[in-house]
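hey all, quick one before standup. I had two proteins in the batch that finished overnight and I want to keep them in one place so we stop losing track of which output belongs to which input. First protein below, input sequence then structure tokens straight from the run.
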Amino acid sequence: MKLYDTQLAPNPRRVRLFMHEKGINDVEIVSVSLLEGAHKQPDYLQKAGLANVPMLEMDDGTCITESLAICRYLESVYPEPNLMGRDAKETAIIEMWTRRAEMLVATPLMMAVRHGHPALAALEKQNPAIGEYNVEAGTKALKVFDRRLAESEWIAADRLTIADIVAFASIDFARMIKFRPPAEMTHVGRWLEAMNARESVSLAK
């Protein structure tokens, strides 16, 4: 298999984090330069269907994009350690928190970076007001996670799961615009320290 990857973007980093947590080391990594428009070239689009990264190309030539779909497939092929649910109840809870992490935290913080970091002006027309609005939205949403992390070491289960990966990748990405969760969110702060201490985070830079 091949993973078409780009180094700085948060969605490909989700997959790299996921793979490192599982110890997956037999997938070839193919670098794709977004700034050079490699994801918009005809050969890439023919495989991916959209100008999206990451993309996983299976051994039979099947290609899938969307980071969570890729992680779901890898979870099936490499079932341990489990990161997406051991039974119906746990799987549903993890998916609930993963959706919350993506919609409430990841999406606004990614939009904030896209519209707030000068280097990304090469990819799209930026609107500073959109960036500022999304910083506020992401910060407000983190209150939900601070409450959750007051009662649980990890976001969705008794261990790290895909929900933690989705939330962390975007919060860490937002450091590009000097974003930091408010100091009073002590439980988010404790969780971020735990995430940053994991070997997968250093490996998936």
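OK second protein, same deal, sequence then tokens:
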Amino acid sequence: RRAYDSYLRNHVLPAFGDQRLAAVTRTQVLAFRRPLEERLAPITARHVMVMVAGIFADAVTDGVLARSPC
């Protein structure tokens, strides 16, 4: 849980926290992913992206979004 809290605070919220979920595009998600893969260990970058994909998947399931940008 601490690791995911850290991923959220240090990576996800700085990149997307001020945007509505529906405003986030696939291009933005890809632009977010590239530097993660360069800066972080592969497994850490994967965990961050799994978290992001999960957030958007839940938004689709809940009917907030028609589809995920991930």
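Flagging for whoever picks this up: Residues 36 and 44 are 9 Å apart (CA to CA). Residues 42-61 form the longest helix (20 residues).
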